[in-house]
Amino acid sequence: MLAVVQTRSWQEAYRGKVPQQHLDQLDPSRRRHGWLQLLQSDQAPAGTLVADHPDDGVVGFINVGPGEDTDTDPALVGQVRAIYILPEHWGRGAGRLLMNAGLDRLEAGGYREVVLWVLEANDRARRFYEAGGWQIDGASRTNDSRGAPLVEVRYRHRQAAAAT
After folding, report:
1. Which Gene3D superfamilies match (predicted)?
2. 3-class SS letters over the chain
3. pTM (2 decimals)?
């Protein structure tokens, strides 16, 4: 189900930002194996948390773990690797619940700062992160995995324990 959530979220969120041919070719069945491997290999505090709706089943998920960037210390900086919600559940609170749960998990693991990468053109996601206290930190990179070179920007969040 994670692959379906990811695929449907990409197809909606990236429409007009990523080549349509790439979005049309996305197939959840090709992503299932990768998600299965990740789920089996993650060790706490890394992990995947899901939002399960009583009528609709899994409507979203977040995957968190140690920071993966070369300019961050993975012992000190955690990372939101992925957060996706089915488009019909956007704006209903599942994303905020998942983000809070993911940040709590990382904080319990000792991480006082957390980073994430987002497509620069993904204004909806950027507004969501900024409303949750995330701040752009000035880092950017080009990602070619979505059918064209696309700029991603990095956001940083200081955990409550770090702010005191």
Report:
1. 3.40.630.30
2. CHHHHHHHHHHHHCECCECHHHHHHCCHHHHHHHHHHHHHHCCCCCEEEEEEECCCEEEEEEEEEECCCCCCCCCCEEEEEEEEECHHHCCCCHHHHHHHHHHHHHHHCCCCEEEEEEECCCHHHHHHHHHCCCEEEEEEEEECCCCCCEEEEEEEEECHHHHC
3. 0.89
